[in-house]
Design goal:
Layout lengths: L2 H22 L29 E10 L4 E9 L5 E7 L5 H11 L6 E4 L3 H4 L1 H9 L3 E4 L9 H18 L4 H17 L11 H6 L31
Parallel strand pairs: 1-4, 4-5
Antiparallel strand pairs: 1-2, 2-3
């Protein structure tokens, strides 16, 4: 058996494995910490009308052919623009704080929404938000729908990049995600953004002939009790 065929065989096995994980669903990564304060969810029924009105962050587990890593991303709800992301081999709060600080170099949101995971309720994370005058909102326990925009981002990243590419290790994953997030922000047109890219919407750039300066679809935080099924952004 040649080296290339062996690698292809391993890649096929890996793709089958992660496809099975996708079908079964992934257990939540939100590990609660009893000693950390939890903030209320503030976005029920709130219309999202401008950039930097609401940002959110979340973490997903990424399997590779050799090992796994965790990915955190910060996204602007209005434009779907991914402001920052980081990878880590552990679930401590430091890589989430690093991503937050990187995003804050771009701008500052009015509200920052996360789940109740220990990384986001930690003093290290919440103190950065509070010191910048940012209002903190947190999802209800077990309610991914409360962070619906980043849940849609994860669906897109997994099925357009992570699962098809079947990255072999952390270095390959890092460079692959760097390419993908650049494509997602700068090149990938979204129907929900009037066929513009997240970067164009975030920067206020309109298409020639566009009649609206904002995404045409109404953006409103999900009301309590509404079901949600992940879907493509275009």
């Amino acid at each position: 058996m040649t080296k290339s065929s062996t690698r292809r065989k391993h890649s096929d096995k890996f793709k089958a494995k992660i496809a099975l994980e996708a079908i079964r669903g992934v257990k939540t990564l939100a590990q609660l910490a009893a000693e950390h304060p939890v903030f209320p969810y503030l976005l029920k029924g709130i219309a999202i009308e401008r950039k930097n009105q609401v940002w959110s962050a979340d973490i997903i587990y990424i399997p590779m052919q050799r090992g796994f890593l965790y990915l955190v991303a910060v996204i602007d709800w209005w434009s779907r623009f991914v402001l920052a992301w980081e990878l880590s081999n552990s679930m401590d709060s430091s890589f989430c704080v690093d991503a937050l600080n990187k995003a804050l170099r771009i701008s500052t949101p009015e509200v920052f929404n996360t789940d109740q995971g220990a990384q986001f309720t930690s003093r290290e994370f919440t103190s950065v938000l509070q010191s910048n005058g940012i209002t903190i909102s947190m999802d209800g326990k077990g309610r991914a729908i409360d962070n619906v925009f980043i849940e849609r981002l994860w669906w897109t990243v997994k099925y357009e990049d992570i699962y098809p590419k079947a990255y072999s290790d952390g270095i390959e994953l890092y460079h692959g995600l760097a390419r993908y997030f650049h494509y997602y922000n700068e090149e990938r047109a979204h129907s929900s953004l009037d066929k513009r890219t997240p970067a164009a919407v975030h920067r206020g750039i309109e298409l020639a002939g566009s009649r609206c300066s904002a995404p045409p679809s109404a953006l409103r935080a999900a009301p309590t009790g509404t079901g949600y099924a992940p879907q493509r952004l275009r």
